[in-house]
Amino acid sequence: MRHFRSFDDTEIAYLDDGAGPAVLLLHGFAADHRANWVAPGVVDALVGSGRRVVAADARGHGASEKPTDPARYAGAAMVDDARALLDHLAITEVDVVGYSMGSMVASRLVPREPRARALVLGGIGVRALQGPPPANGARIAAALLTDDPSSITDPVGRDFRRFADRMGADRPALAAIQRAPNRRQPGTFPDITVPTLVLIGDRDALLGSPQQLADRIPGAVVRIVPGNHITAVSAPSFRGAIVEFLDGLQAA
């Protein structure tokens, strides 16, 4: 892993592997680049297709710095981290691939990023148009911080706590993300103008219909693969769909 200092001096860890057209990978909440992209074989598939892969650990995750002050995650902090990483690596053109939280970050990055050529939105659906419900943040933060996970009665909080524990994630940092001011802004999906693939598991109902989301993005297409919100990234057809989509654009 390499590290750099982002726009506000937060240390961000990232993988930079392969050669060719650049692809930026943005992972989901409580995961990291290894769980979301390396272990499921996405990085190897992209590198094997002749691409340079940049996969960051979002602030609060993985090997990146993990502040516990919610203000350090406020507003567009993760979007600005992604832009700062592109600047740091002097990348002039990039395809952006997100999953879940990473897709929300990507949806706000790409419309304002002239270096973006294409976009893959993984693990999200139409409810992403409104952004995460504010009440969810308090519920998830409380579940992350409780001493006794068996006492969690909220199903959403319980699922995130289980995943965070399985990942060995920094729970106070994750709770700070959920409590960050002005972070729960909807993605600017109708403003996306680059070719876009919406990619989701057939049993992933977390954020609603992928087709209804794609209908709000000019020219977007949908691909369904086996799995739920957690397991879809491990399906061979998930990484295959990303490579096929980007290859098709490159050929065109």
Estimated radius of gyration: 17 Å
Approximate strand percentage = 15-25%
Mean pLDDT across all amino acids: 95
Tell me the series of helices and strands, N- to C-terminal: EEEHHEHEHEHHHEHEH
Helix/strand/pairing class, anyone? alpha/beta
Number of E-state strands: 8
Distance between the termini: 34 Å
Give a written overview of the molecule:
With 252 residues, this protein is α/β, with parallel strands linked by helices. 35% of the residues lie in helices and 18% in strands. It has an 8-stranded mixed beta sheet with strand order 1-2-4-3-5-6-7-8, sandwiched between helices. The longest helix is centred in the C-terminal third of the chain and has 16 residues, at 236-251. It is globular and about 55 Å long.
Features:
single chain; 252 residues; alpha/beta; eight-stranded mixed beta sheet; 9 helices; globular
Summarize the structure in short.
The protein is an alpha/beta fold. The chain is built from 9 helices and 8 strands. Strands 1-2-4-3-5-6-7-8 form an 8-stranded mixed sheet, with helices on both faces.
SSE layout:
Blueprint: E1 2-5, E2 11-18, E3 22-26, H1 33-38, H2 42-48, E4 52-56, H3 77-88, E5 94-99, H4 101-109, E6 116-122, H5 134-145, H6 155-167, H7 171-178, E7 196-201, H8 210-214, E8 221-225, H9 236-251
Parallel strand pairs: 3-4, 3-5, 5-6, 6-7, 7-8
Antiparallel strand pairs: 1-2, 2-4
Helix pairs in contact: 3-4, 5-6, 5-7
